[in-house]
Amino acid sequence: MTSLDSVLVFDKDGVRLTVEDAVATVTLTNPAKRNAQSPALWRALTEAGRSLPGSVRVVVLRGEGKSFSAGLDRQAFTPEGFDGEPSFLDMARGSDEDLDAVIAEYQDAFTWWRRRDIVSIAAVQGHAIGAGFQLALACDLRVVAEDVQFAMRETSLGLVPDLTGTHPLVSLVGYARALEICATGRFVHAAEAERIGLANIAVPADELDAAVRDLTAALLSAPRDAVIETKALLQGVPGRSYEDQRAAERAAQARRLRDLAGLGD
Q1: Closest by alpha carbon to 190, among 126, 254, 246, 141?
Q2: E strand or H helix at 104, and its extent?
Q3: Whole-Å CA distances, 62 to 91, 119, 121
Q4: What is the pTM of this model?
Q5: Which residues touch 120 (CB under 8 Å, ≥6 apart)?
Q6: d(CA 25, CA 92)
Q7: Within 13 A of 122's CA, how many CA atoms are on the CB side?
Q8: CA nearest 209: which of 119, 139, 121?
């Protein structure tokens, strides 16, 4: 449902973007197909990221119906593919450069969720499989319903996860567990997801919306610039030594103190 106070930015190709004050909601809107994904949907997700007003601080990603997203629409693997789109079989016959460019374009739908000026929350219920799992992983935080079923099925299909999901998965659960999840294609349910760090919060399905609202309110309660600086500090940890991180903390805190004292640039 769209709030009476929210502004509809666009609604097309299985994606709806609404904005209410500092909160944007991106909704997958094809519940009849369990929000299966397609290149058109990926382009719409990319457009959603580019269309966010500067006032937005939190972006909530959700899927209509019983499932968050059951993954890639299997029509992609048919000779016909999608109307107006090259089939995956046709793509495979192209040059390495062309294939790389197409996959990179698809990945754009999954990259903007970790921008430093926003915090993104995936509200996940039911199936989050393959591309659906990777879309949930693209977000900063995940709140899941107790009926959630994560699975990375690409390897079982003879493919690899290529929609940016491998980096956050390893960061969250470690290499060994990530390999086991991907190579077996098994389901990860809510209790395990919360225990191993895939989910920040697991709640009964009828409490999912309320849990997301509470988390959003908590995120908005802190000053925006402090959240942006903190997010940047945490995102930089993997590429820094302990001493480099100490230095980054000092520099970030100096900026915050100057800003609070009215001495910033």
Answers
A1: 126
A2: helix 96-111
A3: 30, 14, 9
A4: 0.94
A5: 58, 59, 60, 61, 113, 114, 138, 139, 140, 141
A6: 35
A7: 28
A8: 121
In which element (H, E) is residue 229 found?
Answer: helix 224-235
Structure tokens at 106: 């698809």
Kindly state the tokens that stand for 131.
Answer: 């591309």
Q: Is 261 helix (H, G, I), strand (E, B) or coil?
A: coil
> In a 10 Å sphere around its CB, with 0-12 CB exposed, 13-18 middle and 19+ buried, how is residue 20 labelled?
middle
Reading the block at residue 53, the tokens are 């007003």
Each residue of 60-118: pLDDT tens digit?
Answer: 999 999 999 999 988 877 777 788 887 778 888 889 999 999 999 999 999 999 999 99
- Name the token pair of 192: 């395990």
Q: Which residue has the tokens 């929350």?
A: 121
For the record, the structure tokens of 111 come out as 């990259």
Distances 155 to 8, 93, 97, 180 between C-alpha atoms, Å: 38, 21, 23, 11
